[in-house]
Amino acid sequence: MRVGIIGCGGRMGRLLLAEVLDDERLQLGGGLVRKGSNLAGQDAGVAIGRAPVGVTLSVDPEIIFAQNDVVVDFSTPGASLEHATIAAARGKPLVIGTTGIPAHEEVAIRQEAERTAIVLAANTSVGVILLAELVQRVAAVLDDDFDIEIVEMHHRRKVDAPSGTALLLGDAAAKGRGVDLQTSSVRARDGHTGARIAGAIGFAALRGGDVVGDHSVYFAGDGERLVLSHLASDRRIYAKGAIRAARWLIDRSAGFYTMRDVLGFSDD
Ligand SMILES: NC(=O)C1=CN([C@@H]2O[C@H](COP(=O)(O)OP(=O)(O)OC[C@H]3O[C@@H](n4cnc5c(N)ncnc54)[C@H](OP(=O)(O)O)[C@@H]3O)[C@@H](O)[C@H]2O)C=CC1
Ligand SMILES: O=C(O)C1=N[C@H](C(=O)O)C[C@H](O)C1
């Protein structure tokens, strides 16, 4: 199975290259970097501090999709939509791990998934997907007397907030409670905000240091708090999960999928 990686100059892209190169069942079929990147034209192995592997990093996404059976994209929102369009035109499966994708772009990605198989996953770690299942269950059991607040912390270089995972957990909480996240969420608080709105799902984003990714969902009641957390200490969990999604996706027909589908969770 030939795997192409998009965003090879990034924190995740580098780990994804290593993951593919270290898996004897996989073949690295190409890697994409941003136009103007000083990694363009460099050997993919050398780019991650290893011996040459004979695969040159390209700036042409068409080549990446032509040369691979499945492509994994951890880059930036606009770029991921562009890649979904190319994937759809070529009928190539695509795993997108990019977060901060605006709603209208997600709609467009879902449309492209009518022509090819696409996994869109704000978090590819098994632990986080399990956390989301737990959050949905707890939210279904506890009533509005328990206020839901989602707190996340990431490294100082993260550019989007709240994290895609925080929004995914918010969605799980909203589903469990039977409410709409868009109309229930409070994304920031500052100044004289007034008392907390009953039934709101609140978000808080912390940024600092090298934190890989911490997420906690608080169910805060009178006299007790239930806190469900996932703390990531090694970014490789995301790379491993993304490659698991790519393996799973290769045999799928066109459609829009999530990590729940990859892990075989059903809706019953
Ligand atoms: N789903 C998950 O489990 C996870 C998701 N993420 C998400 O993945 C994304 C990437 O994260 P991270 O690796 O930390 O970020 P980085 O900023 O380190 O990497 C992003 C990379 O994408 C490159 N890039 C931008 N545009 C293009 C393009 N058109 N073609 C090819 N490459 C491009 C950038 O190039 P350049 O360096 O030249 O600017 C950069 O190297 C983020 O949205 C993040 O939130 C992160 C971790 C886990
Ligand atoms: O940018 C990151 O680092 C991460 N981004 C994803 C997100 O926004 O949820 C996943 C993980 O938390 C790491």
Automatic annotation (TrEMBL):
Keywords: Amino-acid biosynthesis, Cytoplasm, Diaminopimelate biosynthesis, Lysine biosynthesis, NAD, NADP, Oxidoreductase. Residues 1-123 form the Dihydrodipicolinate reductase N-terminal domain. Its EC number is 1.17.1.8. The active site is at residues 154, 158. Homotetramer. Catalyzes the conversion of 4-hydroxy-tetrahydrodipicolinate (HTPA) to tetrahydrodipicolinate. HAMAP family: DapB (MF_00102). Pathway: Amino-acid biosynthesis; L-lysine biosynthesis via DAP pathway; (S)-tetrahydrodipicolinate from L-aspartate: step 4/4. Belongs to the DapB family. It comes from the Bacteria. Pfam families: DapB_C (PF05173), DapB_N (PF01113). GO terms for cellular component: cytoplasm. Residues 127-263 form the Dihydrodipicolinate reductase C-terminal domain. It catalyses: (S)-2,3,4,5-tetrahydrodipicolinate + NADP(+) + H2O = (2S,4S)-4-hydroxy-2,3,4,5-tetrahydrodipicolinate + NADPH + H(+); (S)-2,3,4,5-tetrahydrodipicolinate + NAD(+) + H2O = (2S,4S)-4-hydroxy-2,3,4,5-tetrahydrodipicolinate + NADH + H(+). Gene3D superfamilies: Dihydrodipicolinate Reductase, domain 2, NAD(P)-binding Rossmann-like Domain. InterPro entries: DapB_C, DapB_N, DapB_N_CS, DHDPR_bac, NAD(P)-bd_dom_sf. GO terms for biological process: diaminopimelate biosynthetic process; lysine biosynthetic process via diaminopimelate. This is 4-hydroxy-tetrahydrodipicolinate reductase. (S)-2,3,4,5-tetrahydrodipicolinate binds at residues 155, 164-165. It is found in: Cytoplasm. PROSITE patterns: DAPB. One of its GO terms (molecular function) is oxidoreductase activity, acting on CH or CH2 groups, NAD or NADP as acceptor. Its main location: cytoplasm. NAD(+) binds at residues 7-12, 97-99, 121-124. The keyword NADP applies. It comes from Arboricoccus pini.
